[in-house]
Structures are given as C-alpha cells and as structure tokens.
Records
---
Amino acid sequence: MKAIALLALSTLLSTTYAETIHAVTETTLYSYLKEGQVAGPATELLKLNLQRAGLTDYNIHLYPWARSYEIAQNRANVLIYPIVRTPSREKRFKWIGELIKTQYHFYKLKARKEIIVNNLSDAKRYTIGVIRNDVRQDYLQQQNFTRLTISAQREDNFKQLINKQIDIIPLIDKDAEALCQQLAFDCAKLERIYTLNGISNGLYIALSKSTPDPLVEKMRSAFEQLKAEGLVKKIIEKNQ
C-alpha cells in the first residue's frame, strides 16, 4: 500500500511538471513587446531562469497589469514579473528572486507651480494617476488617498499628466525617462517632487500561490545560481 501511495505521488509530481508554465507581465522598462515578441531584460532573465531550472514548456504573455495580476492570483503554474514585493502581497505569491531595487517618486509638470508637496498628506489635495491593482494604488488607498484616477496602462496615466487631467503620478525614474521617450515628451518639463519611501522595494519574479512547491524550489535554486554568477545584475542593468 505504501509503495502504491509513493508511486501515485511520483506520478502526480511528474504530471505537474508536465503542465505548461504561463508567464505574465505588463509593459515596463524591463518587459515589453519587440517585433511581436515579449522581450526586455527581465524577460531575458526569466527565460534563462527557466532554462536553468530545466523547464522548457512555457509561454509568456503581456497584458495590462490588472489582468496579469488576476491571472497570477487565481491559477497554478503562473509566473508574474516584474512585481513589487510588499507585506500585503507576501502570502499571495511564492517569491523566486529579486531583479532590482526600486524607488518611487511623485512627478508633476514643472510648469504647475501651484502643486506643492512637502509631505505625504500634502499630496492628498491633488488628483493622482495610478494603475489598476498596482502597488501604488494599493499603498495610496491604504494611506486614505481618495482622489485617485485609475487607468489600465501606464501610458494612459502619463498622457493624462501631460494633458493636465491629473496633477501627479508616482513613477520610478527610469520609467519616467522611458515614457518620455515613448511619447516624444520632453522630460525636462517634468519635476520630481516627493519620494515615496513607504512603497520603495524590489522588483521580483514570483509564482502563483497554488503552484506546487517542487517547481517553486527548482526556480528558486536556478535563480540563486544566476545571482551567484552575477548574471542577474548584468542582464537587468545592461540596458540602464
């Protein structure tokens, strides 16, 4: 009977590993579409991580953040990246490894002299653009911000800022530069006005919570190997 049980467990694990791994992401500095394929340094690293883990049956899709986040919370064998690791998300995912440290800041149009933010409470007077289900929306709502304009894509937020439909957006510096380039906007017209230390954390690769632990450990072990070899830093920062 014990032998039968062990055989059944072995069969179950083999079946689990045979299932396709679905990776989901959004358009960021580290993940984006290029010639019809999901690319970017985080995507390159993810593929290498999967290869090192011996996992070859996978696909990668780029969606608006809210959809990627929903998929990763409700299905097994789903990788999500890059995702900010926060206390509220800690138990929702199985974390693989940190890609890079992040620092969020409030930005405004430099010409908007009337917008003054010396502390977090000051910012509550203004309309702030955020991405649906993004860590910035979560954090600001936890801090009792009510004047939030929620969009599906970061480009929509940035356009609203340019058109003065919103007053402030929270961004990583590199994302601000990338959006300026993407939308042909002069970054000199932007001004960084406040640092959001409360949500500054690392960007990670994570697996959905219902993903079997053996698969998670394969990914973690492979990631640690890449990190020890200096490849995580090299790949993520090469386009900086």
Note: DSSP finds nine helices and twelve strands in the chain.
---
Amino acid sequence: MNKWLKRSLVGIAAIGVLGATGLAAGAYLGDRKAQRYVPLQVAAVATPADAASLQRGRYLFATRGCADCHGASGRGEVFIDGGGLYAKAPNISPGPGNVVSGYADEDWVRTIRHGVKPNGQPLFIMPSEDYNRLTDADLGALIAYVKQLPPAPGDAGVMRVPALVKTMYAAGLIQDAAEKIDHDLPAAQPVPEGVTAAHGAYVATMCIGCHGAGLSGGKIPGGPPDWPAAANLTPGEGSAMTHYASAEEFAAMLRTGKRPDGTEISKVMPFTSLREMNDTDAHALYAHLKSLAPLALGNR
C-alpha cells in the first residue's frame, strides 16, 4: 500500500476514534446535566372546579400545545420521530401508567411553569418557556382541567436522544426547559381579553419555544435536523407576515395550515392546536405581531 495512503487512512481512523470518544464523553456529560438539581421556590396556585374555569382550562389545553404532545385524552403521543431523536409524551391523565398521581399541588406549577420535575431535575423537552408567563388564573384553570380528565392508559413516556444531541446539550448549544426561563419572574398579570396588541402579546407567549423570545425565528434549537427554520413573525427581513393583509387571512391560516395563495405551511407548525384558537385570540395575535419592531430572520 502507498505509504501516504496508509498514513492518510491511519489518520482518518484516528480522527474517527477521537470523534467517537468525544461523542461518548459528550453524551455522558449530557446525561449528567439532565440529572442536575434545579433549586426552586414554588407555590401552588388555586385550581377552581367551576364550569367556567374548567372550560377555560379545556381551551388552553387545546390551543396552547398540550394536546399536540399529550393527546386530547392526556395519555401521551409520539411527537418527535426523526434524525435519531424519538420522543413520546408521558400520560398525564389519571389512568394507568400516569406520571402525575403523586403530584403535590406545587409540582404541577413546577413542571408546567418552570420545566422542572417534582424531584428537581429539568425536563429536556417541555415548552415551559411558552407557559411560564401564564397568569395564575389561567395556570390554575389548566391544571384543574387536566386533573379531571377521564383515566386513559399510557406510560411514563419515552425519550431517545442521539449522542450528538446530548453533546450539544452538554455544551450549552441546546437548552432544556429550565435553562430558558427566568425563574424569579413574578406571575404575569392579567390583561383584559380583547382584540388588542396587549392581549395578543399574552397569546404570543405560546410561540416563543419555536420562534424565539423576539419572534424572529431561525433554526429551532433541539429540533430534528429535517425541521425547517421557524419563520420570522416580526416585520423584519424575510417576514412571514407579508402574506397576510388582514387579521381574517391570518386567522384562516391558523385553521387551515395554508397561506392565502393556497400554499401549505410546514406541518411542524402545531396546527392541531392553532385551529382551535378563537377569533379574539387569533386577531389579537395578529395585532401584536404587526406592532413588533422589525428584526432580521434568525435572531430569535
């Protein structure tokens, strides 16, 4: 064998070994990070049982993405299966195999608002940054609704994360739910419900997980490699909002998954939830997005 070719092959093999070793070490560090303790001071919120509150909780469960992962019954669904990443949500109904039967009242708040398990460990995939700014009344209504779901069979969920993703997580390139949140923020104060930019800003908190706190989109951290970048929802460069000349057109997109010209939007968008949004929330969200300062695509 040509000595230069031989040396090249040896070098490539060495790089491969180093790469595999690095991934193994990174995966180990990622697992360690996922087992860390997140100290929190958490207080329970009131969970009213009146019909109006339960109806509000049902609406939030349907429109804020809970059903997308946990299913309408709460039993848990597969919501990611690609690029080596597999995620099935746990059963949060009172049925067999659920993960919530031992929850204290404050554990619901810890999990939903802060992205932290009752044992203090962070949840890896839980969009708590979308729920952190729920008012206490809305959070209480949501918890009350989930607690009264009919029992459905399920399990504790399944999470299979490839070594590369674990390594990126260990390096801080991907964050878990707890890392994305300022846990010292007080609960959001209620905003009068109506077709206003202020109410729309409250609704828009459900968009943060994918589109970023600034709503200018970009690659979704931790998403499978085949997921497209989240759209820019500000009026800046590459804005998706140029497609919608009115709140009515925007609301129609949320319900159909199609732009006014008939082209389809990526199914990564949670249209199962978005189509359940009422006109007040949809039109208020449009008003808020149109009021944003322009940001270039990808600034999140």
Note: Strands lie at 78-82, 85-88, 158-160.
---
Amino acid sequence: MQNYSFDMKDPVYEIFGLKVSIHIHTMENTYSLSPEKTIVELNNQTITIACSQLSWAGQQQRANGKFSLSAFRNDRDQIEFQMSAEAEQKIISIKLMIRDLPPVSIYDADTGSDIPINVSESLVQASGQIFYYPYNAFKYNNNLKLPVFFLKNRESGNLLGVYSQDHKVRAKRFVVSEEVQGEYKGKCCLELIHEELAVNLDTKISIPKWIIGEQVNSESFRDEYLAFSESEKGIGLTRWEERNDFPDWLREISLVLNIHGMHWSGYIFNTYENMLEIIRYVSERLEGRHILAYLPGWEGRYYWQYGQYRPEPLLGGKEGFQKLCSEAKRLGVHLMPMFGSNIANLRMENFQEFGPNSFMKTAARTRYHVNEPDWDLSRGHDNGWQAFMNAGSPAWRKELVRQITNLKDTYQFDGVFLDLVHHWVNDPDHEVFEGMRSLKNDLTKNNPDLLVVGENWYEGLLSIFPLFQVRPYINQPAWVGRYARTMAHLLEAEPSRGSTGVHEKGYTNYERKPLSKEYIPTIAFVDGTLEKAKKEIDEVLKVSHQYIDKYFPSKQSV
C-alpha cells in the first residue's frame, strides 16, 4: 500500500463517538467532501451527512457531485452506516475511514490470535495491512472468507467488529495503518472499502450497510453475520442438512482418494490400471459407496492439457479410462475427474473458438494472469500459455460444459472437480461469481445426480458447491461444516515419500488429520504409495470407519 505525499485534509465528522472521513473513488481520481457544502444533522437518533459538492487534490480543487450518509444505533447498540454518492465519472468504490483509534492489532477470530498492523513489504510501500474479500491472488494470507473483520484494543482487549450486509459477492477491503501526516499522525485508522461490480459501474452508487459493533464477542458477531447471510437478504447460505443441490450419495462419503495421474512434465504417477488397483485395494476394506476417488492429472499433462479434455493415451487411453470408470461403478466407488473451471492452454487448437472473448480481467481491463508455477524448472515462471478464463463468459462456459457433459455421457463418472473456483476478479464484462453459479447449474441441469466440487472457498461459494478441496496452511474454521464439507488439497503429501504428485509444491511432510465432522478423511496416491505405505493407508481406512460410526448415526461401517 502507498500513502499520498501530502495531507489530504479530509473533513472529519463525529458519529456516535467515531471520527469518520470519506473517500469516493472513480476510475480516474479520488474525491473527498467539500466541508463548505456539507450539512450534518441529528434527527430521531439518526445522524445524516449531506454533501452537495466534492473535493480533490487535498481540498485544492472542487468537482460536481454528491454524497449522503445516514447512521444510527440499532437494537444491539451497533452503528449502522448507509452511504451513497454521485460524481461526473463512474464510481467504483466508497471508503469509510474510522480515525483516531487507540493502539490496535488485527484479531483473527478463527485462530484467536493477534496480527500486527505495522507491516511493510518493501522500501517503497507504506506500513499497514490490507485484508481482502473475497480473494486476492497475491495475498493468500490476507484473504477473508467472510466480509467480517475485527480489531483488538491493545490496552483494554476489547474487540471492534465490522461486517458488510451485502447480498452479492462484491469486493471489500479492510485496511489498518497508522496515519503518517495531518491532525491524526501516528494514530490508527481503519479503512472500510466497498467496491461496486464493474459490470454495473455508474455515476451513481449506493452501497450495502456497514455494521460496526463495539466491545463485541467475535463468535457471536460472526454468527450474527452468518444469520444475515442465510436470510433472504443475504448471499443465500443453506445449512448442510437442508441442502438439496447435490446427490444424496455424497452424504455417505467417508473417504476421499486423491489419485494422481500425469505431472505437467509428462511423468506418470498412476496409469488408469494403477488407479483401478488402488480403488480395488481400498474397496475391499471399505464399502465402495463410501469412497470418492478424485483424479487430478487424469487427462494427461497436468494444466498443459487444460481446455481440451480426453483420456490420455499414455495412461491407458479411451479403453483404459472406460475400464476404470466401469469397474469403479461396479464396486460402488464414485469417480471424480478434475477440470479447470477458469484455465485453458491458449496453445490448444480449439482455443480461438472460445478464448479471445473470455479472458478474466480487472475493472480497468488488465488481463488477469497469476498462479505461475515453475512448471519447467527454468526458474523463469513465464507461463504465458496458461490463460485465465471467466466462467461468466458464455463462450468459455458453453465449451467447458460441452466437453464435461460429453465425457460424462461416455464414461458415466459420478462427479467433477472444478479447479480454481475461488479465483475472483472484478471483471467488467461478466460477473465471475455468478459465472461459477451458472457453470455449476449448466453442468447439473440435465445431470442432477452429478456432484460438482470446487477448490477452496469463500462464503459465496458455500452457496454453490457442497464440497471443497482446502489448503492445509489456511485455517479452516469448524463452522464451515454448517454449510459444506471439505477434503484434503491435492498439494498435501502422500504417505510413502511426501510427494505432492501433480502439484507444483513437490514435497512436503505427510500428516494425518484428526477426525472432525466438516472434514472427510483423505489420502493421496502417487507411484509406490500403495506398495510402500499400506500401514498408513490402513490407518486412514480405520479413521474412515470411525467417521461413519460417529457422523452417520443411522449407518454402520462394514
């Protein structure tokens, strides 16, 4: 983050003990309020701010525009802020700044830990912390699953809680820093930024309410937000027990097998025959109906083949894949091949049919290009062939659905795994989140018993997908089990040598996860895992039986 090299001289207004300032961001500049054109009133316990002119360049200039704010204390003694604005240029975001705060730290409610605010990534960046909802590809550790945020008073220990009452997935940024100039130099400031969907940008904007609670209990405050999210006014979360948007057989799954196929380089971990051997071994010790077999790299060179899916000749070809699918079905095991929801190799011969009009891009139309593993070990990380597609684009979505549906009709597998569904950007042509919803709906329209699973989650995605592969180093709160189930990420090690299979991480320590309702026991297989790690495989099978006994009360493990 950066700061301006001059004092913005933003007017400050006191609202129920909070000192606030406003920024309005268009696609071409940053605006504040003109104090001489601003009226503050208190009527019936509601504070209103009405501004009929905007300012810019540290109050040196004036611009046509309007801003209004209303704030009141609700029946929980929280402050509710409602804001709207008008400008000559299209408005992308409004920032509410809470200033002159006492010394604070950021509070992680999921871990109960404090996070310092004075962090700087380089000599040309200002000290402070930015947290993102729903996703920022460059800030894994600062992504929020919910638009909920806490600050902890370092002296009293009291928590200040904030959330946005939004019914759509729209960008929120929570920024904490010490001011570097002006009246409040050295004081902490909290910035609450709501960004409008780029597909809807206009010269007028009205943003969802910000709810600010003082001296809150983090768990109660979060649950209050989740109750809103479950309501008709929220994003549409549905409790696991009440969901009807996935096949019933998922409720009987107690074990996931991550069976790796072919690495990006062409290295073969498991052929289709090897995969079948693994499935046979496991299904002899656990009923097939409890097993979900996830197949990353089934289509050939991992990621390189994205965008043009078919059985890989070097893994056994069409006949080998048909045998795998047919035999797994006979054993009652549910197969789930992996597909890229928003990635395609632009060198594929079919790319021109769907790609050029489907690139993911930012609000300013910068092409979205991240996630550049060192696939070839050249240390250059230059994967220009790896193009991000927007599932909201009809051309890409139609083509992906066509390929998956044709394969499903031919081979009769039971599920599909969609890679990278959590990647989000404020695309000006098509909503990324709604594109994911449409993709899932298009896949299941004529195949209602098809399970559709995603990688990683944020709150909105919990309303679309019932099962997620989750990264082990990002804390997974138990409350996610209210709405969905999770399984181990494919980057997690298999037990024989710590290999991460097709994933670019390479090697890591193997660790068996403890039993918990929201997490379905998972074990990975590369070449040699079945032969060299049978003891650990059998231990995980025991955990799978325990999962059935503990969480499927009407079932008995066999």
Note: The first helix runs from residue 218 to 230.
